[in-house]
Design goal:
Structural class: alpha/beta
CATH class: Alpha Beta
CATH topology: TIM Barrel
CATH superfamily: NADP-dependent oxidoreductase domain
Distance between the termini: 39 Å
Helix content: 25-40%
Strand order of the largest sheet: 3-4-5-8-9-10-11
Length: 289
């Protein structure tokens, strides 16, 4: 990629002590077909969207082998390989896809290894920057799941290990076995059930990647504190939600996803939105943002 890249605001975070990224990233789930299944309806538009991601200065793209399945990873490589030097690609494994909108845990060591090697091929990488366990499989011993990731790390196939949809107790169990640099849980101004996990990650300098950071249409409810703040700042509720997340914790790395260039640009602009203490507290003190 040779085009001039913009520099978003919002600050940076260093994943694992050696991978600096802009704090506002991009989630690549929605570049696939309906139900996160199959090819996108317009492949050229998906490629153009990924080009725009890096043009905007975004340096963290989050994907998974289960998005498509495999479609998201292939599109990322088709659009962006050879990658910009500062681009960090995070992917995930640990879920099977029996059909559109269906997800089942699979943490068997053979599956995790095959998923990692498949991601390496599809993304055209020699090493994955951040490889995340998409879900902890309750049917497989934790030591077997984490041990597989550790062996892949020792073999140089992954650089850092992350987790997804976990409690503080889960994180501590895994950290007793391996170094963890990121946690990816559902979190947004309306849904804050993982506040304790965010605070734990901040204390231990672990990146927190909130998935579903915009909470779908619930954030735009008329008369809500978030909507009122958006009106005051002449911004959209989505932009205010992202600005609120960025202010919530220095380890917060929102990864909003979209299939639209216009929405991507709107989201990226949120990193430059100045959210004052009063506006932040107005949302923070309400559980009905």
């Amino acid at each position: 990629m040779s085009e001039k890249r913009l520099e978003p605001m919002g600050g940076t975070f260093v994943l694992g002590g050696d991978l600096p990224v802009q704090r506002l990233g991009f989630g690549a789930m929605r570049i696939t077909g309906r139900g996160v299944w199959g090819e996108p309806p317009d492949r050229a538009a998906a490629i153009a969207l990924l080009h725009r991601v890096v043009q905007l200065g975004i340096t963290l793209i989050d994907t998974a082998d289960s998005y498509g399945p495999e479609v998201s990873e292939r599109l990322i490589a088709a659009a962006l390989h050879p990658y910009p030097q500062d681009l960090v690609i995070a992917t995930k494994a640990g879920l099977d896809r029996p059909g559109p909108g269906k997800w089942t845990e699979n943490g068997r060591p053979a599956h995790l290894r095959a998923a990692c090697e498949g991601s390496l091929r599809r993304l055209k990488l020699e090493r994955i920057d951040l490889f995340q366990l998409h879900r902890i499989d309750p049917a497989v011993a934790m030591e077997d799941q984490v041990g597989t990731l550790m062996r892949l790390q020792e073999e140089g196939k992954i650089q850092h290990i992350g987790l997804s949809e976990v409690s503080v107790a889960d994180i501590e169990r895994v950290r007793a076995l391996a170094a963890i640099v990121s946690v990816q849980n559902r979190y947004n101004p309306v849904d804050r059930q993982y506040d304790e996990v965010v605070d734990y990650c901040e204390r231990h300098a672990i990146a927190f990647l909130p998935w579903f950071p915009l909470g779908s249409g619930t954030l735009a409810r008329a008369g809500s504190p978030l909507t009122r703040v958006a009106e005051q700042l002449r911004a959209t509720p989505a932009q205010v939600a992202l600005a609120w997340l960025l202010r919530r914790s220095p380890v917060m790395l929102p990864i909003p996803g979209t299939g639209s260039v216009a929405h991507l640009e709107e989201n990226a602009a949120a990193a430059r939105l100045a959210l004052g203490e009063q506006e932040y507290q107005q949302i923070a003190t309400s559980r009905d943002a």
